[in-house]
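Table S2 (continued). Query chain:
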Amino acid sequence: QVQLVESGGGLVQPGGSLRLSCAASGSLFSINTMAWYRQAPGKQRELVAAIIFSGNTRYADSVKGRFTISRDIAKNTVYLQMNSLKPEDTAVYYCNAPDGGSSFIFPWGQGTQVTVSS
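Corresponding output:
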């Protein structure tokens, strides 16, 4: 079964940038949609950004204009470039593939912690 490994998180000051990576242990070629999610303490997991096989993307309103999702099919990797980070972006970030319903195709990875603080 394909495993997902998220990386690239860390501690950054407000206004800073980070680039997250989500590496899959198997091919993502047949996966229509990959997405990044985040979960802050005491809050539900929320969708941050999604990319469709065609290259179309969509973003949560809270990150539009600041975050960019991309994918490298050859490397089986999905990225999330995060700029102009805010304290409210602090969360554990995960990637996965929504199945079109309420479930996900892959087991959840361990996530990567992003902390925005001065």
